[in-house]
Amino acid sequence: MSFAVEAENLVKVFGSIRALDGLSFRIKPSEIYGLIGPNGAGKTTALRTVSTLILPTSGSVKVYDHDAVSEASEVRKLISYLPEEAGAYKNLSGDEYLRFMSKFSAKSKKALEEMVESAEKISGLGNRLRDKVKTYSKGMKRRLLVARALMAKPKLAVLDEPTSGLDVLHSVHVRQIIKQHVKEHDVTVLLSSHNMLEVEYLCEKVALIDHGKIVAEGTPEELKSKNKVENLEEAFAKVVGLA
Fold first, then answer.
1. Distances from the Cα of 127 to the Cα of 114, 137, 175, angstroms
2. Which of 101, 107, 152, 154 pairs with 83 at a CA distance of 20 to 30 A?
3. Under DSSP, is residue 152 helix (H, G, I), strand (E, B) or coil?
């Protein structure tokens, strides 16, 4: 079987810190796969390595059979990456920002218009897209950025804390966007999140990561059942010996 993402024995060392320590996982096409764990567990490093932004110290990553190191340019054509602390140009309107970003991947004027139209729908911001980004709330900015990440219909969307810092209503909107977009366009998603409710709602498969290693993997229901707990937070605490 061909996988959307295939990470094998990934190691990443920053000085004296071993951020990834033999990390291995596989993601099926059109699957939403979540990496969850505490701060410093290696989640963001893993996402950046898959996205070709960080070179692994050793090990390998393939995205749709393309090596993320030797074929980085090919991998970048297939993915869209949303960092946790992403920003948008504050002096552009939302619409201007989406049009500007579309120019990097649209191959024709028609494709650009279709991309922007898709992003407008995804964001759900309506007439506020005419306003400058600097007037947006944090939730509105995040919705704009999620729209930017999904509008090109990437084969793989890598989302780092997609609802970070958002209130309940904005969080619900973003989760629904992600789930609907995956279903409609066969997009594969690799995401990290601290929000266990979000992970249970979105992810078909989850890896619990601690100190750069996967300590448990399965569907949310499998992880809860195996550890005889009611939620993923309790499952993680049990797996790493905190409960």
1. 18, 15, 22
2. 107
3. coil
